[in-house]
Design goal:
The protein is built from twelve helices and six strands. With about 290 residues, the protein is α/β, with parallel strands linked by helices. The chain is elongated and about 70 Å long. This is Helix-turn-helix domain-containing protein.
Length: about 290
C-alpha cells in the first residue's frame, strides 16, 4: 500500500465532505444542486453522506455549479479510485458480530491515516497489543462469547496491525499516551502482562512510534472521561480536519467537525505535556514490568 489513501470507504467520505463544504460555501441548497444535475435533494444528501458516489457527469456539473471547475480532474481521479478500489477487510469473512458496520469506517480511516494519536486509559492500544493480551482483553470485556468468536476478533486485531504498522512505503506516525494504571494491570496474568510490556519496549525503538506514560500521580486529567483516537490524513486530502473516534460498549462515535476536533486535540496536547517524556518511557516500562 502506498501512503496515498486507497480505501474506497475513506475516499467516498472525503469526496462527500468536500462536496458538502463546497456547496455550503457557494450558498446553494441541496434542492438547487439536485435540480442542476437533474437529480433530487435526497440524491445530493446521499452523496454528501457518503452513501453513494456522484456519476462522472454529475460530478463535473456540481463542481461547475460550486464555482471550482478547475478541480474536476482531481475529483475524477479520486472517484475512479473509490470505484475501483477494495477495502482490505473484504478479504476476510468477518461476521457482523466480529466486525460491526459502524467500525468499517474506522478501519478505512486507520489504514489511510498519516498520523494516529491516542489516549489509552485502561488497556494498551489495539495496534500495539500482543496476541495473548488481545485474547485476555476480549474475554474480559465479554466473557460469555464463544471461543471461535474470540479468535475471529483476535484475527481482526492482528490484521489491523499488519495493515497499519506494516504499511508499505510510509507507515503512519503513531503516538500513544497510556495511563500508568493500564500498564500495571495484569491483563491475562503477570506473564502475559510482562510480555506485553516487552513488546512495547520493542515498538518504541521504531522511529515512527512514540509512547508516553501518564503517571498516576498526575491525578485528574483531560482524558479522565475515557480513551479516544485522533486520526489525521495525508495532504492529498486537502482541507480534511481529521477524525476523532471514541469507542463504547454499544457503538463507535466519529467527531469530524473542526470545533469538535479542536476540543480533543487540546486535550491530547495537555496529556502529552503531563505525561513522562518519550525518552523516559523505556526505563519506566522496564521498572513497571519488574514490579508486576
Amino acid at each position: 500500500m502506498s501512503s496515498s489513501p486507497s480505501s474506497p470507504t475513506v475516499l467516498k467520505r472525503w469526496i462527500a465532505f468536500e462536496l458538502r463544504k463546497l456547496r455550503e460555501l457557494a450558498d446553494i441548497s441541496r434542492a438547487d444542486a439536485g435540480r442542476a444535475v437533474r437529480g433530487s435533494e435526497q440524491g445530493i444528501g446521499h452523496i454528501e453522506n457518503g452513501r453513494s458516489l456522484p456519476g462522472p457527469l454529475q460530478l463535473d456539473k456540481l463542481l461547475d455549479l460550486y464555482g471550482v471547475p478547475e478541480r474536476s480532474e482531481f475529483f475524477q481521479q479520486l472517484r475512479a479510485r473509490a470505484k475501483k478500489g477494495k477495502d482490505w477487510w473484504i478479504n476476510f469473512d468477518f461476521t457482523s458480530e466480529v466486525l460491526p458496520e459502524y467500525f468499517k469506517l474506522f478501519l478505512g480511516l486507520e489504514s489511510c491515516a498519516a498520523s494516529i494519536e491516542s489516549f489509552d486509559a485502561q488497556v494498551v492500544s489495539g495496534l500495539m497489543q500482543t496476541k495473548p493480551y488481545t485474547e485476555a482483553v476480549i474475554r474480559g470485556v465479554e466473557p460469555e462469547i464463544p471461543e471461535e468468536e474470540v479468535q475471529r476478533r483476535v484475527e481482526l486485531r492482528l490484521a489491523r496491525q499488519r495493515e497499519v504498522l506494516g504499511r508499505a512505503g510510509q507507515p503512519p506516525l503513531l503516538w500513544s499516551v497510556i495511563h500508568e494504571s493500564a500498564l500495571r494491570t495484569p491483563v491475562g496474568g503477570v506473564d502475559v502482562a510482562r510480555e506485553q510490556l516487552r513488546h512495547l519496549l520493542h515498538l518504541v525503538e521504531e522511529p515512527h512510534i512514540t509512547v508516553q506514560v501518564l503517571p498516576m500521580s498526575v491525578g485528574a486529567h483531560t482524558g479522565i472521561e475515557g480513551a479516544f483516537i485522533y486520526l489525521a490524513f495525508p495532504p492529498e486530502l486537502e482541507n480534511d480536519p481529521g477524525t476523532v473516534y471514541v469507542d463504547t460498549r454499544v457503538k463507535g462515535y466519529y467527531y469530524e467537525q473542526p470545533e469538535e476536533i479542536a476540543v480533543y486535540r487540546a486535550a491530547m496536547r495537555r496529556l502529552q505535556a503531563q505525561a513522562c517524556q518519550p525518552e523516559e518511557t523505556p526505563a519506566l516500562i522496564s521498572r513497571i514490568a519488574k514490579e508486576l
